[in-house]
């Protein structure tokens, strides 16, 4: 009898990580090269490789959860389809004007710009219509103006259209009619409207979101339908799901209408895996960091759950769809060290990436990188870089560091390399504080979960810098993001504007609005065939004090729609007092007996993923001496003779004192002096600072 | 862990302090009540050492960078270190005590660590209304500071952590929308307290000695970078001028002249040739003047230097009292923004002679500030809707100007159409780029913006100040000027141009069309790639007629392609005209 496999596939820039789990909780991890140009080929290859390792056949593939960067890359590289925009008369430039503010980096620099609009002015057309701030249709939609726009779109060869009318979040009627007309006139053209994609206040942010949705929508459609076809022909029992930026999965066919949800979905798997890990070892507050070759992604998990925000920007483009709050900076193993005009040492954000690569790869890179510095300092084993597939040159690393850094600063090579590490660590630490301390979190209550190839190398110093007391390094840190896909829940988010003051909010209206959104969420879960008993319906509301422009999202409850009692006045009061308390916690200001407004209502439909038991490591003694494979000098401000461990040989209960390095394929963990680590029953390395 | 004062710790401390300043700004934006703070973000925050020297600032408006320092000097003269108590917050808006203009309320609070003052945090925010003769306190044409609003010298907003009710009462009695403004003032206080808490954490972690050592090192570092930048400029005197259209009283241009005497790794800047103080409220207080000069110097010499007090050390800036760049009481100053923009532009123009590849052409060079006020017909509540506009930025050596962007000095956002309409009885009928408003050049000046505001209430007031309606944004190195800005009343009916600075009453259904200036061009438009010109025509950013007239590019109206032969003929036959 064949087993049933659930497979997570994370397509990265260089490698595609594939992780499979069977009904008994047996985990298989493989890696294959990403195949740019035809990502599906790498996906199929990866699954086949996994089946071979797991001794399973094609029929055993049950669910495939896929993290794709097709949408993200199309946006990054500006390779979306030729898109047109239809707006209210007088507002076609909103997309280009944006919020007029130059980027932060351009405070004094005339040459720093916001990204150019995805849709050039010539493809931005206007329809005659107007809705006012109460949702009244004060200028009726002139259907002829829409038909005329359709003619221009057709002539220009537009393949996708975004529609955003002023105040459509209060009354979507005009947008919906415009969509019907466009679809009638241009049956082969992809159309999305802002009241479907992001029905929230602020016209620029909403236009930006729907523009992105249309810009990548047809590509996603095309990719998903082809991939699904190939998967079904190879693996007849498989169903394909995609991971969204909100950390939940959706069935592949739902992606058509929700393309924007895939933007920046890359880091979502890691964030999901980190919350799962935290729940299993009873660590509620986590800073999860993914450090690869070029970027450092940070997500914050509070009380076992990652924060999902609707206030995100990606590469300068606002995206008003729920997204795991992930902060990314340019810092990774490939980050390049350089001396500025004032003689100060800087590291990054430029990265040598995989090509030309760090100096030690000998791929042609001549500039010193973080990886070169780690190599010179004995922190990484030259035999294990890139899975042992290349032989790095320590000499080349030393030469690059000497020439670019050490000679200019009058330092020894190891002092220079150590300075590079300290600066990159400081940058990563700063990025973490922006994401945490700045939002009112106290890092002393958090644990750091570092993953990605380079994460565990830098974690201890970063944690020490920030006062984070504990680090948890999961097994297979290189494939941690793909593991997260396996445990991601199914998730569908819905929002509607609900603008009224506390006193004017009738419990019946509030209940009714939530129930309507709930029906939409249930329909999606039906389509995904989520079992009724695995469903969760979460209600929440965005509130603010009168006059404020920014809301706080306040949870209202779980599965409330099943309650026999509908809302009473006291429920409205409870939601508002929860808001007051949260406001004080974050902004240090007490409620001043001010009026509170509801702004948006949100409903999230969740299909809980089947939980599997984390695997357990064999029990061992405190002594880990059998796992020591060698001793070598490692630099921690001075050279120290350090034990080097093989992670494969570690057992639950082992204790390791720094200075030490724990090595495994594609990653290694540095334990500085005065720190100690123990191995828990799940195989995590727990470092105390 | 023990930290030492070294270049690495310096960078770490710098990042932490910058982050604290940004966190203060974030707190203010999220908790404030007026669109000018929460949407437009006309604010900033900074951290000072105990001598009042700027160590770190938020990424908001550089306008306030050096300005703050002058205010701090005044503050420490008035309240010596020995008199401060923990939890004190001082508030002031007095342009004659180092302030900006009356609508900019500044707060200062000491950071106590181990019972000693180790520094200060400062915040500044532009408020919707500070009283005075015009709703929104933004009318042009006023002649004394006393008419401009409530002037607060340096007074205690909080004493030892407790609100000073007297000041809140005085404020409340003198301003038009106290419910909003007092919430905004409290947001400034909250930002200060958050800043103090965070700076203390840094002291706790690194020890006061190390932090102070790093601060000193950081300032020395910035100084060194600015000196290195100055050394790349040949010694000599560089002068640049610009004009403010008028002062809103007399129809007479006002000359701004900036002279940079550069020698070795230092420079002294004076304003010889600048006009005396004027009657109208375009006089620019000294702290704003300093900010305008230093902003331009940093932009051109080293835009990525850590912006702190060390940057100013290689420079001396002298402004004669009684001139428009250093007015005396009772000079009115509310519209000083538009003068400070000219000071920056004149400084950039002066530097264009030394570093032509580092400057831009003239930009919209003003912040068109509009205040609409009245009573909301639905709620009968008083409202003040302050809106400021982006405009056309100047063309850059390798790039076109940024169409419809914010201004020099300030870094601000617009008010979303939906935010304005949800809060105030107005309807925005158009918000768009203006075709042909960018100055022609090898790189094009940016397009200007148009925003049409339809009044939905009776008896609204429209107060405003703007500039560059007579003197257009200048082109450089052969580039042409950008379009001037204007205010037009009822564009679909009588299409009447209004004064750039003034206060008018409006009727229900009047429409005010705000048209900002466009940026100047850089280099000869005849050198612009015809493909770029065609692109602009296809995007309706320039007309086919402008393509031919200014760029010498002939475009076939039917095929919409470049007629290369006629273009070559046209371009070889001679120069271009400036726009009329």
Structure notes:
The complex is a heterodimer of chains A (689) and B (580). Chain A folds into 5 domains: 112 residues, Nucleotidyltransferase, domain 5 (2-Layer Sandwich), CATH 3.30.420.40; 139 residues; 127 residues, Nucleotidyltransferase, domain 5 (2-Layer Sandwich); 87 residues, no CATH class; 118 residues, Dna Ligase, domain 1 (2-Layer Sandwich). Chain A is 30% helix and 28% strand. In chain A, strands 13, 14, 15, 20, 23, 24, 31, 34 and 35 form a 9-stranded mixed beta sheet that branches. Chain A has a 6-stranded mixed beta sheet with strand order 3-2-1-4-11-12, sandwiched between helices. A 4-stranded parallel beta sheet of chain A has the order 6-5-9-10, sandwiched between helices. In chain A, strand 23, helix 12 and strand 24 form a beta-alpha-beta unit. In chain A, helix 8 crosses helix 13 and helix 9 crosses helix 11. The model of chain A has no long low-confidence stretch (mean pLDDT 90). Chain B has 3 domains: 217 residues, no CATH class; 164 residues, no CATH class; 46 residues, no CATH class. Helices cover 30% and strands 21% of the residues of chain B. Chain B is built from 12 helices and 20 strands. In chain B, the strands form 4 sheets. Chain B has a 7-stranded antiparallel beta sheet with strand order 2-1-5-4-3-6-7. In chain B, strand 17 and strand 18 form a beta hairpin. In chain B, helix 1 runs antiparallel to helix 5.
Strand order of the largest sheet of chain B: 2-1-5-4-3-6-7
Give the strand tally of chain A: 35
The number of domains of chain B is 3
Q: Into which percentage range does the β-strand content of chain B fall? A: 15-25%
Cα-based radius of gyration of chain A, to the nearest Å:
26 Å
What would the principal axes of the Cα set say about the shape of chain B? globular
Q: Residue-averaged pLDDT of chain B, rounded?
A: 93
C-alpha termini separation of chain B: 68 Å
Quote the beta fraction of chain A. Answer: 25-35%
Low-confidence stretches of chain A: none
| Averaged pLDDT of chain A | 90
Assembly state: heterodimer
The helix-and-strand class of chain A reads: alpha+beta
How many helices of chain B in DSSP terms? Answer: 12
Helix content of chain B: 25-40%
* Main pleated sheet of chain A: 9 strands, mixed
Terminal residue distance of chain A: 49 Å
Anisotropy-based shape of chain A:
globular
Number of helices of chain A: 15
Question: Could you name the ranges of chain B where pLDDT drops below 50 across 5 or more consecutive residues?
Answer: none
Helix/sheet category of chain B: alpha+beta
């Amino acid at each position: 009898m064949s087993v049933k496999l659930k497979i997570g596939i994370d397509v990265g820039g260089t490698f595609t990580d594939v992780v499979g789990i069977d009904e008994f909780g047996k985990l298989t991890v493989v890696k294959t090269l990403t195949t740019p140009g035809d990502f599906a080929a790498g996906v199929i290859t990866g699954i086949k490789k996994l089946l071979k390792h797991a001794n399973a056949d094609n029929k055993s593939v049950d669910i495939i959860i896929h993290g794709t960067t097709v949408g993200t890359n199309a946006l990054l590289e500006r390779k979306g389809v030729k898109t047109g925009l239809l707006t209210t008369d007088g507002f076609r430039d909103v997309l280009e004007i944006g919020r007029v503010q130059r980027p932060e980096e351009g405070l004094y620099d005339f040459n720093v710009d916001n990204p150019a609009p995805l849709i050039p002015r010539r493809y931005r057309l206007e329809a005659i219509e107007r809705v006012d701030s109460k949702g009244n249709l004060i200028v009726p939609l002139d259907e002829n103006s829409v038909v005329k726009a359709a003619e221009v779109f057709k002539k220009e060869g537009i393949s996708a259209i975004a529609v955003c009318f002023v105040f459509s979040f209060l009354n979507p009627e005009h947008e919906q009619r415009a969509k019907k007309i466009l679809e009638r006139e241009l049956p082969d053209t992809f159309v999305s409207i802002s009241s479907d994609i992001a029905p929230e206040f602020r016209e620029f942010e909403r236009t930006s979101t729907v523009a992105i949705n249309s810009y990548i929508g047809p590509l996603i459609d095309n990719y998903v339908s082809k991939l699904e076809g190939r998967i079904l022909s190879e693996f007849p029992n498989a169903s394909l799901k995609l991971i969204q930026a909100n950390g939940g999965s959706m069935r592949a066919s739902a992606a058509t209408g929700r393309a924007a949800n895939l933007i920046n979905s890359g880091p979502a798997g890691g964030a999901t895996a980190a919350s799962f890990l935290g729940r299993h070892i009873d660590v509620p507050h986590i800073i999860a960091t993914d450090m690869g070759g070029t970027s450092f992604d940070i997500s914050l998990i509070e009380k076992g759950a990652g924060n999902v925000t609707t206030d995100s920007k990606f590469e300068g483009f606002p995206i008003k769809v729920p997204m795991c709050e992930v902060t990314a900076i340019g810092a990774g193993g490939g980050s390049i060290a350089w001396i500025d005009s004032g003689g100060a040492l800087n590291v990054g954000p430029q990265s040598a990436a995989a090509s030309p690569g760090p100096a030690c790869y000998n791929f042609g890179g001549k500039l010193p990188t973080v990886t070169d510095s780690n190599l010179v300092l004995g922190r990484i084993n030259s035999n294990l870089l890139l899975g042992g597939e290349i032989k790095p040159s320590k000499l080349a690393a030393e030469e690059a560091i000497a020439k670019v850094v050490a000679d200019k600063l009058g330092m020894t090579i190891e002092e220079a390399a150590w300075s590079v590490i300290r600066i990159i660590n400081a940058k990563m630490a700063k990025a973490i504080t922006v994401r945490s301390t700045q939002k009112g979190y106290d890092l002393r209550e958090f644990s750091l979960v570092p993953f990605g190839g380079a994460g565990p190398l830098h974690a201890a110093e970063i944690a020490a810098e920030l006062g984070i007391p504990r680090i948890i390094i999961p097994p297979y840190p290189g494939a941690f993001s793909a593991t997260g896909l396996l445990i991601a829940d199914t998730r569908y988010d819905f929002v509607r504007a609900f603008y009224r003051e506390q006193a004017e909010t009738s419990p019946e209206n509030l209940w009714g609005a939530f129930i309507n959104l709930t029906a939409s969420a249930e329909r999606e879960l039906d389509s995904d065939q989520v079992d009724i008993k695995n469903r969760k319906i979460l209600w929440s509301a965005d509130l603010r004090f009168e006059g404020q422009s920014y809301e706080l999202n306040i949870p209202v409850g779980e599965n409330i729609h099943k309650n026999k009692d509908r809302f009473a006045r006291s429920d409205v009061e409870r939601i508002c007092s929860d808001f007051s308390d949260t406001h004080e916690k974050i902004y240090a200001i007490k409620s001043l007996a001010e009026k509170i407004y509801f702004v948006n209502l949100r409903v999230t439909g969740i299909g809980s993923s089947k939980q599997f038991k984390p695997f357990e490591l064999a029990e061992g003694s405190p002594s880990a001496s059998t796992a020591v494979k060698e001793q070598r000098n490692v630099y921690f401000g001075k050279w120290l003779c350090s034990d080097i461990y093989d992670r494969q040989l570690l057992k639950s209960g082992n204790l390791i004192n720094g200075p030490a390095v724990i090595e495994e394929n594609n990653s290694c963990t540095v334990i500085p002096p005065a720190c100690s680590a123990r191995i828990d029953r799940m195989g995590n390395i727990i470092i105390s600072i | 862990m023990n930290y030492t004062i070294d270049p690495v710790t310096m960078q770490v401390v710098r990042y932490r302090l910058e982050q604290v300043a940004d966190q203060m700004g974030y707190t203010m934006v999220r908790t404030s009540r007026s669109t000018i703070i929460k949407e437009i973000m006309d604010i900033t925050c900074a951290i000072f050492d105990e001598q009042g020297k700027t160590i770190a600032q938020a990424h908001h408006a550089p306008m306030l960078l050096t300005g703050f320092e002058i205010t701090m000097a005044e503050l420490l003269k008035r309240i010596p270190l020995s008199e401060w108590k923990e939890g004190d917050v001082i508030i002031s808006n007095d342009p004659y005590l180092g302030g900006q203009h009356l609508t900019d309320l500044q707060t200062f609070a000491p950071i106590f660590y181990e019972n000693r003052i180790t520094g200060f945090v400062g915040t500044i925010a532009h408020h919707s209304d500070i009283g005075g003769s015009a709703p929104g306190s933004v009318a042009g044409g006023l002649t004394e500071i006393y008419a401009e609003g409530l002037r607060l010298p340096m007074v205690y907003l909080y004493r030892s952590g407790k609100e000073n009710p007297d000041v809140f009462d005085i404020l409340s009695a003198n301003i038009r929308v106290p419910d909003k403004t007092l919430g905004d003032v409290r947001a400034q206080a909250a930002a200060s307290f958050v800043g103090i808490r965070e700076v203390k954490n840094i002291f706790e972690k690194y020890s006061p000695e190390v932090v102070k050592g790093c601060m000193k090192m950081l300032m020395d570092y910035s100084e060194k970078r600015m000196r290195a930048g100055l050394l790349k400029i040949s010694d000599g005197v560089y002068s640049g001028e610009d004009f403010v259209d008028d002062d809103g009283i007399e129809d007479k241009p006002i000359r701004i002249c900036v002279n940079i005497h550069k020698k070795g790794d230092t420079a002294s800047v004076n304003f010889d040739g600048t006009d005396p103080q004027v009657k109208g409220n375009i006089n620019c207080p000294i702290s704003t003047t300093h900010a305008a000069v230093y902003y331009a110097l940093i932009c051109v010499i080293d835009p990525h230097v850590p912006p702190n007090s060390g940057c100013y050390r290689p420079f001396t800036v002298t402004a004669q009292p009684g001139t428009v760049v250093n007015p005396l009481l009772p000079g009115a100053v509310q519209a000083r923004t538009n003068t400070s923009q000219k000071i920056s532009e004149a400084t950039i123009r002066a530097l264009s002679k030394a570093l032509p590849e580092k400057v831009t052409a003239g930009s919209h060079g003003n912040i068109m500030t509009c205040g609409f006020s009245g009573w909301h017909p639905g709620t009968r509540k008083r409202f003040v809707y302050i809106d400021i506009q982006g405009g056309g930025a100047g063309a850059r050596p390798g790039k076109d100007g940024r169409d419809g962007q914010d201004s020099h000095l300030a870094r601000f956002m617009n008010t979303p159409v939906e935010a304005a309409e949800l809060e105030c009885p107005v309807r925005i009928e158009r918000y768009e780029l203006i075709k042909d408003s960018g100055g022609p050049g090898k790189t094009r000046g940016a397009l200007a913006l148009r925003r049409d505001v339809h009044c939905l209430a009776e008896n609204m007031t429209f107060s405003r100040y703007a500039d560059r309606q007579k003197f257009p944004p200048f082109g450089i190195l052969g580039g042409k000027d950008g379009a001037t800005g204007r205010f037009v009343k009822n564009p679909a009916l009588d299409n009447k141009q209004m004064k750039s600075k003034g206060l008018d009453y409006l009727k229900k259904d009047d429409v005010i069309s705000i048209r900002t200036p466009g940026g100047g061009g850089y280099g000869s438009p005849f050198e612009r790639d015809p493909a770029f010109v065609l692109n602009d025509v296809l995007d309706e950013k320039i007309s086919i007629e402008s393509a031919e007239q200014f760029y010498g590019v002939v475009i076939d109206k039917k095929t919409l392609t470049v007629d290369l032969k006629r273009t070559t003929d046209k371009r070889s036959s001679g120069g271009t005209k400036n726009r009329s």
